[in-house]
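Slide 14.
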Amino acid sequence: MAHEDDPLEHERASWKPSPGLAVAVSDPVSNPGLPPHRARVTDKDPAAMQRAVRTVYTLFYLSIAGSIWAVAAYMLFPIESGRIIDIRNNNLFIGLGIAFALLAIGLGAIHWSKAVMSDKEFVEPRHATRGRDTTREAAIQAFADANEESGFGRRVMIRNSLIAAVVASVVPGVVLFRGLAPFNSPDNPHAGDPVYLLEHTMWKKGMRLAHDPSGEPIRAADLTLGSAVHVIPEELATVSHSDGYLEEKAKALVLLVRLLPEQLTESEERKDWSYNGIVAYSKVCTHVGCPVALYEQQTHHLLCPCHQSQFDVTDHAKVIFGPAARPLPQLPITVDADGYLVAQSDFTEPVGPSFWERH
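Slide 15: predicted structure.
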């Protein structure tokens, strides 16, 4: 409780707002109103308006041309050829066509709004009530006014060219979905069967394991304990890009790891699949196909960097963490008469994602 002689209490009781402050609060801010309207060139000159209209629909038609070019580029530079130049041109010219199509639509829409649409200033009154019949009528009138001000209903060339440009801009994206479908041909009846395509790789009996990308064969004696080597088939160097170099490499990539033989847990049917503690597993993750390229030397775990699936190298590359559904396929290996590591056969199961239907 405050003392009756407390000076702070007397100060609080005697405080009053200053006269200047009271005047400032009670003085309302006047509405400055709208600035004077400045007519555009297109508002004053009908010829300028016609030029602006032509510019807008010309940009929309150029957008259509860009979309058509993107589709044509997809056909002119087929990625199925496997040639690097075609793949680069495919990406370059399709991208340029789509970019030009969208840019032209954007520029045309901006020029339409700035030079052709109504340029008058409007005041929109606000009110607290809503939901009356007059509100619905006002909304309908607002759409009608917007149509009149924009000229969307009157200016047929602009309207039709815009609709055509927007529709055409979607076509390249639809066409690109064709690239997701298998490339069927009479010479390749299994092209539409992913299980067949992933079940067979370049590996075959007696093929040497080679360093990626040099293609130099690997001697078992040259691998140090704890090493992890990225491996490709030696004969991959003889495959041209037009014959499917990239596709064959993607399926046949292998990670070679050397451990102590006693560290391996091997089933009876796989005891001869390794050589003196050296094991080879597919690098293609069984989740969605990312490259399993990270090796933890102390834990002997392989890690997929895409979704963090982990595989135990010491125990048939079984999944110990993450979304992968099955172990990495193992490549049976041995050595030839010269001490080079060679494959005993191809993989005995399909490589790659486990979401493919499997036999």
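Speaker note: The chain has a mean pLDDT of 83.
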